[in-house]
UniProtKB/TrEMBL annotation:
It comes from the Bacteria. This is Cytidylate kinase. The gene is cmk. It is an enzyme of class 2 (transferase). The keyword Transmembrane does not apply. Pfam families: Cytidylate_kin (PF02224). Residues 3-209 form the Cytidylate kinase domain. It comes from Deinococcus psychrotolerans.
Length: 212
């Protein structure tokens, strides 16, 4: 079984996917974390975020390991002499600002998608295009939305920042990501603006049960 949870930036995908995965006792996979880790390594190496051959060469030499833990995905760079967890560094405003450029490259999307399709079900997969491009065969598909202001207010609770600036950054990222961020025809769209996290998880679980 594969459940997909897609949605716009900071709509609650990771938190909801984690809750649903825990309720189903299966792992969840954050596709965004792979894009973020690739962006982080590129920024640190000074590699252009629009140079696909250089990026693939960089990633080909990087022993990345994604741990799809139900409580929260973690990603590691298993360099023999200096293993390192990248998860926190992959969730900074610098990576936020650059990741959409990298994610627009078809070769990088295929690099991510190949890693995702190599996983063995059951799992919950969250991102932008899990229910459309990556796992169109998924049994249950969901697409989360929320107003930019609500998303910004939630984001500044976890990362200090100015709500106005965060809201504008989210709107900009939505526009940059829109090519791959649209609900599958058979996805249930959930507006989380007026729902707490438990309420969204319950709505997804109800949808999963309906499709069981
Ligand atoms: N329905 C909700 N009510 C209140 N807070 C929420 C809700 N959903 C998520 N949050 C909180 O909003 C913040 C962003 O959620 P989360 O990181 O899961 O979003 P995301 O879509 O995965 O973000 P990104 O696109 O940046 O990966 C987190 O602090 C999370 O706990
Ligand atoms: N399936 C995906 C997942 C993510 N992206 C891009 C778009 C986002 O700006 C960025 C980070 O994702 P997030 O951690 O915010 O969910 O990666 C994508 O294009 N496709």
């Amino acid at each position: 079984m594969i459940v997909t949870i897609d949605g716009v930036a900071a709509s609650g995908k990771s938190s909801v996917a984690s809750g649903v995965a825990s309720a189903l006792s299966i792992p969840y996979v954050s596709s965004g974390l792979l894009y973020r880790a690739a962006t982080l390594l590129a920024l640190e190496a000074g590699t252009s975020l629009s140079d696909a051959p250089a990026l693939l060469s960089l990633l080909g030499a990087a022993p990345l390991r994604l741990e799809p833990l139900a409580g929260g995905n973690r990603i590691y760079l298993d360099t023999p002499d200096c293993p390192r967890e990248l998860t926190a560094d992959a969730h900074t405003s610098a990576v936020d600002a650059g990741v959409s450029a990298l994610a627009q490259l078809p070769q990088l999307r295929e690099w991510v998608n190949a890693r995702l399709r190599a996983l063995t079900p059951p799992f919950v997969a969250e991102g932008r295009d899990m229910g459309t491009a990556v796992f169109p065969q998924a049994r249950a598909k969901f697409f989360l939305v929320a107003s930019p202001r609500v998303r910004a207010l939630r984001r500044v609770k976890e990362r200090v920042g100015d709500v106005e600036a965060v809201e504008q950054a989210l709107i900009a990222r939505d526009e940059q990501d829109q090519l791959q961020s649209h609900p599958a025809a058979d996805a249930q769209i959930i507006d989380t603006s007026d729902l707490d996290l438990a309420g969204v998880i319950a709505a997804v679980m109800a949808g999963v049960q309906e499709r069981a």
